[in-house]
Every structure is written in structure tokens, then in C-alpha cells.
Amino acid sequence: MRILFVIGNLGDYHVPRYEALVSAASSRGHQVALLEVFARSGVYGFPQERRAAFFANRPRMAETLVENGADSDGLGALDTARLIAKVRNFEPDVVITLGYNTGYSAVLCFLRHLTRRFKLIYMSDSKADDGLRQRTKERLKRFIVSRFDGALVAGEKHRRYAQSLGIPKERSRIGFDVIDVDYFSDLAQAASDNPEAVRSRFGLPQRYVLCVSRFVARKNVDVLIDAYRKSGVYNENIGLVLVGQGPLEAQLRARIASLGLMPHVTILSSLANQDMPNLYALAEFVVLASEFDQWGLCVNEAFAAGCPAIVTRTCGVAGEVVIDGVNGFVVEPRDVSTLAQRIGELGGEPALRKRLAAGAQSTIRRWTPLLFASSALELAEVTTRRTSDPARHELV
């Protein structure tokens, strides 16, 4: 079987997923090729070091379509024609792409139904409670999504949403939002072995609660600040470290000052992916207080570092990765009192933290790139039959 993996930009999170897919596919006698549409990320401002290392090794059957563009850019007519030519030249049995509403996924969907020569699988972490849903938009979305052959999604609630959009459950699998667990775990262990150097490098307090989030309204960082104040853990010299940036930064700083928390709160700009294990390793626990979050990869990362989490029910990881009372706590969005109570419990009970941390490390062993790869291959095999032509088709 020939599988073409088409993605807007192969960011650092996607590299281990793709590499696992290539390895697993090869073991089954399948071929996988990568077509990265844009060379730059329109989302992450920091260098994508794993992507750079991946392409520096000149991987076989992998190339970038638009070298001077970002995945926030649209596809022009010329690049659209080039994308179509690449796909037709490779002659895939299956195309796996990111999302169902990007310009390149729309082109692939059109081409799939025009030629009827390959099956099309999309990857997504959308779910039903990601904010207010409008009936008209959902009908249009269903019209589009039902034209795809399968869906590789984040978790079971995302799978149910895909089903509501026209993808039967037998043609969906979970495992999209995974991380390289061993990579994060190893770096976190190295940080734990030299904690004072890490604290000095990043300006970290001796003990702290960690939040990794953009400073936008739906992330509810203001709610976390209020809950942190209400919990009183700052009186026990447990600080709050916020990692992120965004349009609400000035408002959040003002709120911190008005609550008298400036000596207890540290704000760091967004750090490179490879720096984050240092912060997870030394944190007491992480908090994701979002109004809603499609997933919450920072929780995967924290769990790999043995750091438990408090998340809201409307985060994708809730009930999927974060199991209440097993490896963290799940609370309702904007429930300051309950969030403050949980912060106080985790901050004040070392035995509880240790138990939940062990649960976190145990849980995350399932959510690895191997799950992504096996789910992707299952979908490829479900949606199409293996071709008998053993010929090798290169991207040109």
C-alpha cells in the first residue's frame, strides 16, 4: 500500500508521529511519503528544531512544496496545481492529511472525488463542546467531512463528534494528539538530576504550580490566578509560573498586581518545545483551566515528566488522559472555588501528589507515536484494499 502524508507544516510535534508511521508501515510492507505544504509554521514563533533535524538528514520520499511560505498562508493557483501534480505522480492508495477545512485538504478532497483513485483520511482534535456550535455551520461541516473516508482523531469524544459529522465509528480511530513520551521523560529526568541549574536558568521558584497557555480569553488564565489566590498556597511558598504570551498579557499582569501576587507569580514567554521538560520536571503539578480546549498537549508532556494535572471538563484530555482522582483532577470551567480547593489539596499533600504522579506516568505510556501509527495504518487498511502493484513511486 502507498500512503501519502500531507501536512501544512511538519512541526516538532508531528515529526515523531510521522517517523513512527514510516517505521510501522515499513514493517507491514507499506510505503509512506511525506509532502509538507509549507516550510514554516504560522502558529509557533520559536525554531522547530526537530523538524530542522528531520530534514537535515535528507529523508527519503519527503519534500516541501512551498519553501518560502507558512501554513497560515493560502495556496495560490500555481501551488495548487503543483500539489495536484505531486499527488497524481505518487499514485497513493491512501492520503492522510491534517484537518478538513484547510486549503490543501479541500484540494485533496476535490481530487479524491474527481479521480476516485485514493482514499482520504483527515486528522483532527475537534469535539462537540469546543465553544458554541451554529446549526448552519455544522450542516456545512457535515457536508464536507462526510466526503472523507476516515478520521484519525484525538480521543473518544472527538470520535463521537466525527461520527456526528458523517464518519462512521468503524472508520475512525484515536491517537492523533500524542507526543514522544520517552523524549520528554528523558529530558525531565535530566532536569530532576540537576534542579538548581534548571531553576537558575529559567528563574524558577523552589516550588510552583505550572500553567502553559496562550494569554487569550478562552484559556481562563485569569480564573487560574483567582483560584491560586483563593487557595492560599502562596503562603506555603508555592509560586505560580505562567508560560505563554498573547493579547491579554497586560490585563493578566494588572490582575496579578491588584491581588498582591507579584512576588509569587513568574511569567515566561513561550519556550521552545525542548525546554519545556525542564519546567514540568520541577513543577508540583500543572493546571489547564480553559473554557474549552480541543486537547491540551501540555498535559501529555507533564504526565511524561511525572507531573499530575488539574484540567477543566471541557478540555479534550479530560476523561481521556486525565482521570479524576487517578492521575489528576477534573473541574468545571470557571469554578474558582473547586479549582482553588484542588490546588490547595495538591499543594499541601505530598502523598497525594506522589500517587497521582505515578498514575500520570502509567497512563501516558499508551499515548505515544506508536498509537498514532497503528491507528493510522488500521484506518488505511479499513478504508482501502492493498494494491498488487509493487512498483515504487517517488515524489518529484
From TrEMBL:
Residue span(s) of domain Glycosyl transferase family: 205-361
Residues in coiled coil: none
InterPro entries assigned: Glyco_trans_1, Glycosyltransferase_grp1
The keyword Transferase is annotated on this UniProt entry: yes
Record-linked Gene3D superfamilies: Glycogen Phosphorylase B
Pfam families: Glycos_transf_1
The keyword Oxidoreductase belongs to this UniProt entry's keyword annotation: no
GO terms assigned for molecular function: hexosyltransferase activity
Protein name: Glycosyltransferase involved in cell wall biosynthesis
